[in-house]
Write a structure and sequence with these properties.
heterodimer, A: about 260 residues, alpha/beta, Rossmann fold, 2 domains, 7-stranded parallel sheet, B: about 675 residues, mainly alpha, Fumarate Reductase Cytochrome B subunit, Fumarate Reductase Iron-sulfur Protein, Chain B, domain 2, 3 domains, 4-stranded parallel sheet, 3-stranded parallel sheet, binds iron/sulfur cluster
Chain lengths: ~260, ~675
């Protein structure tokens, strides 16, 4: 029997590109979109796991799952080019699934249908930074989950030992029974290059488009605004005492960072 | 009569066996990918004359060069003697005396002189191997060494028996044997006791001579002395286009399922011919920066292992693979990792020292890049650091991944004009990534610009429109990315009708000059060292003072070895230097790479000792207070190398900076 590994993939704006607004909405025309960088670690880990298991004689299929508008399919093709076997695209043209809860519900339907033995995701998406979707999905699927993982060792195909860094340089080590969901942190690996041969193959790989299941979002971002321009540096003049007094006054009254 | 029959049968057997083995060898070589070589005959002929007839590369090292030259020409001339020997055997004593007394006399004279010459050379060669033991022969395998001794002994036997037979003939036939033409044989005849041509010594020597010839012939296909036969075709079929131009595969061709050299037979047959023509002389290793710093890559090993791998696969071309599990497994074997490690393939700086040194014109770099292409294009398997640079090229068109917006902004702010069209400007100054983004190298650009302005050269820059030209991605095997980058820049430059380009980076220089024509970009490309040299020559730049520090110059591979620019930077530096420029032992065509080429600039150097430290030692030993460079990557590498030796007191400067200093 073929084991399936699912990889959650989100398309996000490149953090290097400058966000611009049109009214109170984001102007997407000047934005460059990429695969969420944390999801890349998940992609690579799925490929590695596939290699390990296949060496041990187990057939494995890797499936990328993405939710988003039609245009986001580029991200799916990108990860197929890196080597994942096929993709499922949950189409959400109008952004109906607007919060982690609704997205995770939509993902749940697909994941249940696929029957993944293991699911990888990035620890968070760098656009909304909610840090919640994958975790909620694990709850929906009622499978164990560990987040922010930086090392994974499999013991056969049923157990995994995972590591994550916690404050102060110490590590937490978990043993986890599969099926399970793991979210990846930096340091887990580095996604390989999409080779030309794989890019060509990716164009022919299967991408199944499915409609958005009926989900209920609890919230949606109404409007956006840019942070105000940082004020210019102010030089305080005078002798030591006047300078100190003026500084305290400014911090209190203008910057409002200390109370009175 | 009997001896005539014996000779005939021996010849037929020996030549038959040789042809059979040689044919098998040809099959292995021709299993390689096709390559069009039926062109540029004048260049090919010139290469043959230079390297085979005149031994130009061998003469890079005087004494061994001369010895080989003598052995080679001795061999050619003595082959004529061998023909006479066979003729004599087949006709029962016939000689080439139909050439007339003078003609035959000269023929005998040539044999006599060369027999003696070669005998002397062989003795010296034995002495060198047994007593002197030069470095480059020390790492030879025992097989290779045994092979050398065996061959030297064969040749020695050949000339010794010939001398002996001629001497005995002189003793017996007197004036009929033309002793006056055979000084050395006559001398020998004088010191030998009286012998007869019918006696066993003569007979044994005569047959021994013939046997040695036939044994030699049949030993050739299995030894490194195959180069006796293959060196000539290898030189003839060697690369005739610019050394700095890599091949351009058609990546759009959907029928190709594997790029580069995944397996031995994906290499062009000329590379396989290279492997079989290698004489295992070790000259490549001697000059190779990775072999000199204890890394996996040794260009000689590349050739020897390639030969072994190709030979191993011969059953694939000669037998039916279907249903044969062992052959199917062999079919699956790839060059990396079955023959070479990843490290081996990624070690190369593409400095071309090996190519330059190789007397039989082997091209190691092309084979290595083909293997990198297979790794990157087919498998996406490359060092992680390479993945980073590829991404940076993709997103920002520079290896650092810095914002394209900031490219050359400091120059634009200074009002350096942007090249809009060729009517307003004579030159486009293509600055390159290092000059645009690296703090230290920006200063070099400042100096170049200052000097160009001073000389009233009409030039413009591209500002943030400039893009990386694709050189590094190409040498790192990412042909797909490289071709896109090359096309982009060609379109940009053609759109502005650019005709003449000045570059500061030798890597930009080589690619724009040698690789862009294949992409439709024909420009006159000039490195800043050439421009500055000619501006000084023409008096358009007039140095006011000169540098009193002792100066040396570090050659960059890509303007030096790849493009023969050795004199211009030296002349330019000399013109502002009080003292005579110091030459390091490894300079000009023997220059030692800084370690940055072939994308190595962006990869960790974790094995062996550091290449730049090796070079730094040489700079320190030269006693120079300043070292001039002509390449931004050399600048970085040499500076770091000297730093690692705690010799930051030695100043590293681009030659443009040294000149700019003298102009103020
Ligand atoms: S190109 Fe340079 S580094 Fe590469 S094998 Fe030849 S000599 Fe060595
Ligand atoms: S490749 Fe050339 S230089 Fe190197 S050992 Fe062979 S013949 Fe000599």
């Amino acid at each position: 029997m073929t084991l399936k590994i699912g990889v959650l993939v989100k398309q996000v704006p490149d953090t290097n590109s400058k966000i611009q607004l049109q009214g109170d909405q984001i102007d997407a025309s000047g934005l460059k979109f990429v695969v969420n960088p944390y999801d890349e670690f998940g992609v690579e880990e799925a490929l590695k796991t596939k290699e390990i298991w296949e060496k041990a004689g187990q057939k494995v299929e890797t499936v990328a799952v993405l939710l988003g508008p039609k245009a986001a399919q580029k991200a799916l093709r990108d990860v197929l080019a890196v080597g994942l076997d096929r993709g499922v695209h949950i189409l959400d043209e109008e952004g109906k699934a607007s919060d982690p809860k609704s997205v995770s519900e939509a993902l749940k339907t697909v994941c249940q249908e696929e029957g993944f033995h293991l699911i990888f995701a990035g620890k968070q998406a760098v656009d909304s930074d909610s840090h919640a979707t994958a975790q909620m999905l694990a709850e929906h699927l009622k499978i164990p989950h560990v987040g922010v993982v930086s090392k994974i060792d499999f013991e056969g195909k049923e157990m995994a030992q995972v590591e994550r860094a916690v404050d102060g340089g110490s590590k937490e080590i978990f043993k986890l029974k599969l099926p399970a969901l793991i979210t990846a942190n930096k340091g887990l690996n580095k996604m390989r290059m999409a080779s030309l041969i794989n890019i060509r193959k990716a164009a022919k790989k299967e991408v199944k488009e499915v409609p958005l299941p009926s989900v209920q979002a609890d919230w949606k971002v109404r409007s956006w605004s840019l942070p105000s321009e940082r004020a210019a540096v102010k030089m305080i003049e005078g002798d030591m005492n006047t300078q100190a007094a003026e500084l305290v006054r400014l911090l209190k009254e203008e910057a409002k960072v200390i109370g009175s | 009569m009997l001896s005539q029959w014996v000779t005939a049968v021996l010849l037929v057997l020996a030549f038959g066996l040789f042809s059979y083995n040689f044919w098998k060898l040809l099959q292995i070589i021709l299993a390689g990918a096709s390559r069009d070589v039926w062109n540029a005959y004048h260049l090919r002929l010139k290469a043959v004359i230079d390297q085979v007839v005149l031994h130009k590369k061998l003469f890079r090292q005087g004494v061994p060069g001369l010895i080989h030259f003598l052995i080679f020409w001795g061999f050619v001339i003595l082959s004529a003697g061998t023909l006479e020997w066979m003729y004599m055997g087949l006709t029962g004593g016939g000689k080439f005396d139909f050439l007339g007394r003078t003609g035959y006399g000269l023929f005998l004279l040539s044999q006599d002189w060369f027999n003696s010459f070669v005998l002397a050379a062989i003795l010296v060669a034995f002495w060198r191997r047994l007593v002197v033991k030069p470095q480059r022969m020390r790492d030879n395998s025992s097989k290779s060494r045994a092979d050398a001794y065996f061959i030297l002994a064969l040749i020695g036997g050949l000339v010794a028996t010939s001398l002996l037979c001629h001497a005995i003939e002189i003793q017996n036939y007197g004036d009929k044997a033309l002793p006056s033409f055979q000084v050395f044989s006559s001398l020998l005849a004088g010191v030998l006791p009286e012998l007869t041509t019918g006696g066993w010594i003569y007979q044994a020597s005569w047959w021994l001579h013939l046997l040695i010839v036939l044994v030699f012939l049949n030993y050739l296909p299995f030894s490194k002395h195959l180069h006796v036969i293959l060196a000539f075709p290898n030189v003839f079929f060697s690369k005739v286009k610019a050394r700095g131009e890599l091949s351009t595969p058609d990546l759009e061709d959907e029928s190709i399922e594997e790029f580069g050299a995944e397996r031995v037979e994906n290499l062009p047959w000329t590379s396989l011919l290279d492997a079989f023509a290698c004489t295992e002389c070790g000259r490549c290793n001697e000059f190779c920066p990775t072999a000199s710093t204890g890394k996996a890559l040794k260009p000689k090993t590349l050739m020897i292992d390639l030969r072994a791998a190709a030979t191993r696969r011969k059953s694939l071309y000669q037998q039916n693979i279907e249903g044969n599990a062992a052959l199917a497994a062999l079919q699956e074997e790839t060059l990396v990792p079955n023959t070479f490690s990843d490290q081996f393939v990624w070690d190369c700086t593409t400095c071309g020292a090996c190519v330059e040194a190789c007397p039989v014109m082997i091209d190691h770099v092309d084979a290595i890049v083909e293997m990198r292409r297979a790794l990157v294009l087919n498998r996406g398997s490359n060092p992680d650091e390479a993945t980073n640079v590829f991404r940076n090229f993709e997103t920002s068109s520079n290896p650092w991944g810095l914002s394209e917006e900031s490219r050359q902004d400091w120059l634009v702010q200074q009002g350096v004009p942007l090249f809009e069209n060729s009517e307003d400007f004579d030159y486009l100054y293509y600055i390159g990534c290092a000059g645009s983004f690296d703090e230290r190298n920006r200063k070099v650009v400042d100096s170049v610009i200052k000097l160009l302005k001073k000389a009233e050269v009409k030039f413009g820059i591209l500002g943030k429109e400039e893009k990386c030209n694709g050189e590094t991605a190409r040498r790192m095997g990412n042909e797909w990315l490289a071709q896109q980058m090359m096309q982009t820049t060609v379109e940009l430059l053609n759109g502005k009708a650019v005709k003449k380009v000045i570059t500061s980076c030798p890597h930009c220089f080589n690619t724009l000059k040698n690789e862009y024509p294949a992409f439709g970009g024909q420009y006159e490309v000039i490195h800043h060292s050439e421009v500055l040299d000619s501006l000084i020559q023409e008096g358009r730049i007039q140095p006011k003072k000169s540098v009193s520090d002792s100066l040396t110059y570090h050659d960059s591979c890509y303007i030096g070895r790849y493009n023969d620019i050795y004199d211009q930077p030296r002349r330019a530096l000399q013109s502002v230097s009080e003292k005579k420029l110091i030459e390091m032992p490894r300079s000009r065509d023997k220059g030692f790479c800084c370690g940055a080429g072939g994308g190595r600039m962006w990869l960790e150097e974790t094995t062996g000792t550091r290449i730049n430290a090796n070079r730094a030692d040489e700079i320190i030993q030269s006693g120079a207070k300043r070292v001039g460079v002509g390449c931004p990557f050399c600048m970085t590498m040499i500076t770091d190398g000297l730093k690692s030796k705690e010799r930051e007191d030695i100043v590293v400067q681009d030659l443009a900076e040294v000149i700019a200093e003298a102009v103020d």
